[in-house]
Specification:
Elements: E1 8-12, H1 17-28, E2 32-37, H2 40-52, E3 57-61, H3 67-81, E4 86-89, E5 95-96, H4 104-129, E6 136-140, H5 153-175, E7 181-186, E8 189-190, H6 194-197, E9 199-200, E10 212-213, H7 215-228, E11 232-234, H8 237-248, H9 250-258, H10 270-274, H11 303-327, H12 329-332
Parallel strand pairs: 1-2, 1-4, 2-3, 4-6, 5-9, 6-7, 7-11, 8-10
Helix pairs in contact: 1-2, 1-7, 3-4, 4-5, 7-11, 8-9
The structure holds NADP nicotinamide-adenine-dinucleotide phosphate.
Residues 12-13, 15-19, 37-39, 42, 63-65, 90-93, 113-114, 117, 140, 142, 187, 189-190, 192-194, 197, 208, 279, 283-284 line the site of NADP nicotinamide-adenine-dinucleotide phosphate (NAP).
């Protein structure tokens, strides 16, 4: 796996939360980082993080719903940093509220940013990667694809669409024997500014439903999903268990979801109201901390990621052993001469 100083990652939504945290992780590992978002302030802060870690960054302002802007942003970053090895579709936004309380324009915009924005990003990434015949596209999905989350119907639909789109594209690329890979990750709820950026029609600010993880765990999951070459990866044990349960006991999961009212997804904490900055239609103008205000009790490690890393290591050892054995069959396992054929 490419891990040298010349490797380039481009991250949409790289100016905040998970995207900004992932930018820092890749910078730490010697990657050059291209950052795309709408707001100049957040981009400048993320660029500062990357440069403080001793790596190179390039920023470009673009709205992911606008393909022309996105193509121009990618070209500018590639001109500054070199060809892109990994493209991460991370830009996203949400609206909270009962389906009929959410205005149609908001619903459409969530779909546009969260689903079509990633589709646009994928198109741009492929246009960069195809001529070189190499690269990885990583889509940041969500555990909501395993069962839609009440009060987040637009977001649940958009992420489910993104998941199916990724699977269809993986199959197409396989069909044409393309070396370009598509990877999808399913993060759990993460303590990022997402909940300050989301519009809430629930009468109170939104908050992540328990259990919550710190964004560093999600960034680590993105790294591991890329390195392992897995097609899909759940980033926490709860996401993995949720996935398994929604397949094995869909009725039970539907029953649990039907009991999940707004009290699990809203907060009365005045701190959350003070940091509200809805960004569905406008770029963010404020620079938030990478972590949001919901850190109390948030998890900083994931057993699932530890298990995934053990699996990846075992798979790598197994495939090196097979390659070694295939190369030197006569030295290690002398073959016996074939018996003479008889009529
Ligand atoms: N936080 C969670 O609990 C959680 C869980 C699972 C998955 N996710 C997913 O993780 C991704 C990142 O979320 P986050 O938690 O890091 O949220 P965040 O802190 O609000 O970051 C969202 C990023 O997307 C950018 N963005 C939003 N709309 C955009 C647009 N139209 N064009 C270009 N950039 C846009 C924002 O910058 P500008 O506003 O400046 O454009 C920002 O950089 C999203 O896809 C989200 O759905 C989050």
């Amino acid at each position: 796996m490419s891990n040298n100083a010349a490797s380039v990652v481009i991250i949409t939504g790289g100016s905040s939360g998970i995207g900004r945290c992932t930018a820092g992780l890749f910078a730490q590992r010697g990657w050059r980082v291209g950052l795309i978002a709408r707001g100049a302030e957040g981009l400048a802060a993320a660029r500062g993080d990357v440069e403080a870690l001793g790596s190179r960054a390039a920023c470009a302002q673009a709205d992911v719903t606008d393909s022309t802007e996105l193509h121009a942003a990618a070209n500018a970053i590639v001109a500054a940093l070199g060809p892109v090895n990994l493209w991460i579709n991370c830009a996203g936004n949400g609206v909270y509220g009962r389906f009929l309380d959410v205005p149609e324009a908001d619903f459409k915009r969530v779909t546009d940013v969260t689903y079509h924005g990633s589709v646009n990003g994928t198109r741009v990434a492929l246009s960069q990667m195809r001529p070189r015949g190499t690269g990885t596209i990583l889509n940041v999905c969500s555990a909501v694809v395993f069962h839609g989350l009440p009060l987040m119907s637009s977001y649940s639909g958009a992420k489910a669409a993104l998941c199916n789109f990724s699977q269809a594209l993986q199959a197409e690329l396989k069909l044409e024997h393309s070396p370009i890979r598509v990877t999808t990750v399913f993060p759990p709820a993460a303590n990022t500014p997402f909940f300050s950026h989301a519009i809430s029609y629930m009468g109170r600010p939104a908050r992540p439903a328990w259990p919550v993880y710190q964004p560093e765990v999600v960034a680590q999951g993105i790294w591991q999903a890329f390195v392992s070459g897995r097609r899909e990866m759940s980033i926490s044990g709860t996401s993995a268990a949720f996935r398994a349960a929604s397949r094995m006991a869909p009725g039970l999961i539907a029953w649990c979801m039907g009991r999940m009212g707004s009290e699990r997804q809203t907060t009365k904490d005045p701190k959350a109201s003070q940091v509200l900055e809805p960004t569905l239609f406008e770029p963010s103008r404020r620079v938030f901390d990478i972590r949001g205000p919901f850190g109390q009790g948030a998890r900083t490690t994931s057993t699932q990621l530890w298990l995934e890393s053990q699996l990846t290591m075992a798979a790598m050892l197994f495939s090196s052993a097979r390659r070694f054995r295939a190369k030197r069959p006569d030295v290690l396992w002398p073959s016996t001469p074939a018996p003479a054929e008889v009529d």
